[in-house]
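Hi there, hope your week has been kind to you so far. Please have a think about how the structure follows from the sequence. I've dropped the whole record in just underneath, so have a look:

_____
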Amino acid sequence: MTNRLLATLVLSLSLLACDGGKADTADTDTGDVDTEAESGAEMFSATCANCHGPNGNDGSAPDLTVAVPGLDDSALETLINEGQGYMPPQDIDAADLPVLIAHLRATFP
């Protein structure tokens, strides 16, 4: 799984800019925790990592290791949907947003 995630990250970084592109996600309706975690990681790689960096703190955008813990889920949802400053609004389906936020919470506690 690590090699697959790394390959996805490298491909995402080479193909996507921080432009609000919609992440292609796996089916999260199954309730499968591993699938949701993988889907959240894929969304992060495709949508966030290009600007925030793969570790959330090594890109040109604000440090997610500091920002995420200081925001509640509602504030994260608003920030992702509406953007702020140089961050444009991100095109994440409403059904996928909780999966991405869960990934952010798990990765940047």
User: Anything to note?
Assistant: The helical segments are 2-15, 33-52, 64-67, 73-82, 97-107. Residues 33-52 form the longest helix (20 residues).
